Amino acid sequence: MDLEAVIGLEVHAQLNTKTKIFCGCPTGFGSESNTQVCPVCTGMPGVLPVLNKEVLQKTILAGHALDCKIANYSVFDRKNYFYPDLPKAYQISQFDKPICIGGTVSIVADGNPRDIKLTRIHMEEDAGKNIHSSDISNPVSYVDYNRTGVPLMEIVSEPDMHSGEEAFQYLMNLRKILRYINVSDCNMEEGSFRCDVNISLRPRGESKLGEKVEVKNMNSFKAVKAAIEHEIKRQTIMIEDKERIKQETRLWNPDKSTTESMRSKEEAHDYRYFPDPDLAPISVTDEQIEAMRAELPELPIQKLIRFKDEYALSDLDAETLCSSRSLADYFEQVVSTGIDAKKAANWIANELLSFVENIEQMQNFKVTHEMMTELLQLIDSSVISGKIAKTVLGRMVETGNSPKKIVEDEGLTQVTDTGAIEAMVDEVLKANPEIVDEIKNGKDKAKGFLVGQVMKAAKGKANPQMVNKILAKKLS
């Protein structure tokens, strides 16, 4: 049977506000348990939530970036369910009147460009975190409420993907956009970018969806891709064996590379939504919506096209430099000083990035754009060679010193004295008469050996162009 996978993703992105969605508690990661809480986020009787204006603004900005329709009128609802990690036993979310409707995320998967449709983006509060004791003799569970009330956007796609690779590219591009517009750091390790996957199979060509299985507990994009590919195989085997696919929630076990049943959806209670009486409906005018659209920065695809056109960069260099807004800004700051764009791209993409752990934080990297500019200027002015510059760059990363200081302190200035280089060439020719004979007999490749010997004698500091020029003259 020719089966087609149908995949939809629900992504929770934590907004990078300093305070929570309905109170003034901080949102910092890693604080001591239950130190970032107050009566509002812990749901004490008689308290009233107040919407954080920045949460609304950042969500609307994300809606613009993802080509959503921004609703003039939206409502917060209470999502009633048993939440062991939400003290008030309901979550404040948005149900039938979300702030953003529709939208798309453009991807290229397996060489094919596609627009993945979105259903909606809505705002909601996060829940707390259950912590279970690993001590078998004292099986106790705790709850940390620090995350309770942390602002989230839930970005819901249509069931519009058909492979693990498409889902992988969707998540990569979505995260890149959210980071570019600075609404979320999308750090999966800290839980600020989380994903649930809905997967079903159907005969190819049919429009009716098959029975849906949800997969949770994935902490990386590779895990999402692997879980989807595993689930497609598992469901395919079941359908071919005429077994019934159960609507259920499953967990991804990275150690076994398999999904495992968590609970049956058929046994789960329905969420009971109703408008939250403590929060007024959200009313946003067309003028306010357009004013927020004007705050939208250049998006990744726009920057990629501009980099290729304006700087004549290769596809690979442009894609690397545009992989983060921070890295793209770093490159443009170097180029703005008059450094050749292709040279800057080559040094940043191929040399500098080998030392960089987090390209999202290039503005905090030890080698500042001013230092990188100075290094490339030293190459352009023939103070150092490209080979020496690689050594200098490594020392810049180690010490944080400027390239000029490193060159001066370590005596790395390039030898450009014609007489000195000529003397070294003469010594090398005298010591290698057999190589000279080979070259005179037409074996030009042997010249490389002689160049290497001269550079060795000069401890890598001789100007390579001058060495080649003098060697060619002597050998002719």
How does the SSE layout of this entry go?
Blueprint lengths: L2 E12 L38 H13 L3 E2 L2 E2 L2 E4 L9 E4 L6 E2 L2 E6 L2 E14 L3 E4 L8 E4 L6 E7 L6 H17 L12 E11 L9 E6 L2 H20 L7 E6 L4 E7 L7 E4 L6 E2 L2 H8 L6 H12 L3 H7 L3 H11 L5 H11 L17 H12 L5 H14 L3 H7 L8 H14 L1 H8 L6 H11 L6 H12 L1
Parallel strand pairs: 13-14
Antiparallel strand pairs: 1-11, 1-12, 2-6, 3-17, 4-5, 4-16, 6-8, 7-8, 8-11, 9-10, 12-13, 14-15
Helix pairs in contact: 2-3, 5-6, 6-8, 7-9, 9-10, 12-14, 12-15, 14-15
List keywords for this structure.
single chain; 476 residues; alpha+beta; Arc Repressor Mutant, subunit A; elongated
Question: What do these coordinates show?
Answer:
- The chain is an alpha+beta fold and 476 residues long.
- It folds into 3 domains: 3-288, no CATH class; 306-409, no CATH class; 418-475, Arc Repressor Mutant, subunit A (Orthogonal Bundle), CATH 1.10.10.410.
- The protein is built from 15 helices and 17 strands.
- The chain has helices at 53-65, 164-180, 221-240, 286-293, 300-311, 315-321, 325-335, 341-351, 369-380, 386-399, 403-409, 418-431, 433-440, 447-457, 464-475; strands at 3-14, 69-70, 73-74, 77-80, 90-93, 100-101, 104-109, 112-125, 129-132, 141-144, 151-157, 193-203, 213-218, 248-253, 258-264, 272-275, 282-283.
- Strands 1, 2, 6, 7, 8, 11, 12, 13, 14 and 15 form a 10-stranded mixed sheet that branches.
- The termini are far apart.
